[in-house]
Amino acid sequence: MNKWEDNKAWFLVIPVFLIVAVSAIIPLMTVVNYSIQDIFGPDNRIFVGIEWYQEALSDHRLHAAFQRQLLFSGLVLLIEIPLGILIALTMPKRGWGASLSLVLVALPLLIPWNVIGTIWIIFMRPDIGLLGSAINGLGIPFDHTAASLDAWVTVMLMEVWHWTPLVVLMAYAGLQAIPEAYFQAARIDGASAWSVFRYIQLPKMRGVLTIAILLRFMDSFLIYAEPFVLTGGGPGNSTTFLSIYLVKQAVGQFDLGPASAFSIIYFLIVLLACWIFYQALLKVGTGDKQ
Amino acid sequence: MSMVLENVTKLIGNECHINDISLQLEPGTFNIFLGRTLSGKTTLMRLMAGLDKPTKGRILMDGQDLTRVSVRKRDVAMVYQQFINYPSMTVYKNIASPLRLAKVSAAEIDRKVREVAEMLHIEALLNRLPVELSGGQQQRTAIARALVKDAELLLLDEPLVNLDYKLREELRVEMSEIFKRRKSIVVYATTEPVEALALGGNTAVLHEGGLEQFGSTIEVYQHPQTTRIAQAFSDPAMNFVAGKIEANNLHLNGTSPAPLQGHLSTLKPGNYQFGMRANHLKLKRESAAEIEFQTTIDLSEISGSETYLYVIHDDRIWVIQQQGVHLHQMGEQTKVYIDPAKLYIFDVNDHLVCAPSGDPSELKQRVR
């Protein structure tokens, strides 16, 4: 039978193809197009090849932003994943307590990003902010608009407060999916709480945790809203992460060519990092052989 | 090391899940809990394991009261309906896990693990992870994990229910062999009468949290004390017809009188209920002594190499188990026959008066 005989299937694929083309492929190709040209105006552009890429890769400010970004995302994962699991483990499994804690935990996820920024700016203000003035009251000088470390701590707190709930929800869902019989079997074996976690809960959560780690890595690597609202990347360049730097370059200086080249590099880094993460996570927990 | 349950009752909220069960189980015996879903099999096992505490009553092991002793301090192993193994451990480590917790020496662990693995034919799979195993192999691993512990009490809660029937029969045969050599008290919960018969040992019939009858499996099958037990321990369910004994004749509803013979001749005149197993009802007359019923075909169902024919007699639906595949016309009249020597007789209060004398060859045939 000729496999081209029935072409109706193509009509079913075309809508998806169009949506992906408009939403992803065409914009991406536009960026690729910009990244190899020097643009002075709509009709005045020069082909420059890979010059912008070379420039971006040798930009020491970009290197600094990249290192800052890696450190930030690493810390985010180190804090949010264990914290999320811990909170999920302590949440009640059923009854009204379960519903209540789920709603409470999910609250930060429901708040728009600019509102979160405003909340934290006020919360951390050294003069009237609840936490800011409390820390200063303890005799520790704290001002996120002046000290780099303070700005870092604030952005980190915002990120952890905002996004740990996502990890909690995913870990909680993973825990709820474990049949009760596993815990019974462990009790009959006389296994300790740690063994139950290590050999039942953690392996059973592997799937959702893989997704949680990937999502949190990707999202935190692309962080923009929090430092933008808080200090716009300052003080100095201390919270200028990759996307802040990119926007400064593209919108602030309107250097479309270099910004496009940078975007492509940024995109490839995220893609590569996610792939490495994913491959690594697939291996973890399955290699426990004799 | 016999295990005794004394008036064990379990209430959850206001609901009675286990109602006043007393039972004595001897070491080295194979005991079956037979009952439908929600009859209390799992709840009773949880109480025996010590996972839950009974609301009333005591649980004794060899005379020692264990009622309040936590599960961690008891010597119990359990196999579940789901295939429960530690997901990140290999088959070897899974089987070894109870021994490791018991601080057994490495050489001893190795010897025992390999011995049990061989018994369950999973010795080639020791380095695999549970996800790399089929359902049957996963359950074999779980059974091995329970066996290796050599516990005083081994509980199996419908262990074969999630397997396809070929694997189920295979594993069932192997299990009854393995358990014959054990010194532990083995308890096996099932909903299937056929499974109980195949496994032998003793059977406790449970119904709505109560213990209906306990005895050797064949004894319970051949002498079900009430109509309810007869229903539970019969697949398909037992068929009933009302009737009476009068002037030395047997009058079953809708039939002509028949002379009293065999086990029926001891019956006093009066009203009775007569139970007939589905495989004893015939569509062809095989001897002159057989009683004839006029029935209407309601439904016919083919299952494997057998035909289940549902017929209506006197407003009751009966099931006839017919060998081979046959087609029947719905609504058609058909004559059904039964040998009076195969009748189970219950009084009007549902208690057994008299059962047909057992025929072991017939039992084997039921077991398949």
Give a summary of the structure in a few sentences.
The complex is a heterodimer of chains A (290) and B (368). By secondary structure, chain A is mainly alpha-helical. Chain A contains 12 helices and 2 strands; from the N terminus they run αββααααααααααα.
Task: Name the features.
heterodimer, A: 290 residues, mainly alpha, MetI-like fold, two-stranded antiparallel ribbon, 12 helices, 74% helix, globular, B: 368 residues, alpha+beta, Rossmann fold, OB fold (Dihydrolipoamide Acetyltransferase, E2P), 2 domains, six-stranded mixed beta sheet, six-stranded antiparallel beta sheet, 20 strands, disordered C terminus
Work out the helix count of chain B. 9
- Estimate the strand proportion of chain B: 25-35%
Oligomeric category: heterodimer
SSE pattern of chain A:
HEEHHHHHHHHHHH
Number of strands of chain B: 20
Please list the strands of the largest sheet of chain A in the order they lie side by side. Answer: 1-2
How would you describe this protein?
The complex is a heterodimer of chains A (290) and B (368). Chain A has a single domain (60-283), classed as MetI-like fold (Orthogonal Bundle). Chain A contains 12 helices and 2 strands; from the N terminus they run αββααααααααααα. Chain A has helices spanning 8-35, 51-57, 60-90, 96-110, 113-124, 130-137, 148-176, 180-189, 193-221, 225-230, 242-252, 256-283; strands at 37-41, 44-47. Chain A has a two-stranded antiparallel sheet. In chain A, a hairpin with a 2-residue loop joins strand 1 and strand 2. The longest helix of chain A has 31 residues, at 60-90. Chain A is globular, with a radius of gyration of 24 Å. The termini of chain A are far apart. The model of chain A has no long low-confidence stretch (mean pLDDT 85). Chain B folds into 2 domains: 3-231, Rossmann fold, CATH 3.40.50; 236-367, Beta Barrel (OB fold (Dihydrolipoamide Acetyltransferase, E2P)). The longest helix of chain B has 16 residues, at 165-180. Chain B is built from 9 helices and 20 strands. In chain B, strand 4 and strand 5 form a beta hairpin. In chain B, the strands form 4 sheets. Chain B has a 6-stranded mixed sheet, sandwiched between helices. At the A-B interface, helix 8 and helix 9 of A face strand 6 and helix 2 of B.
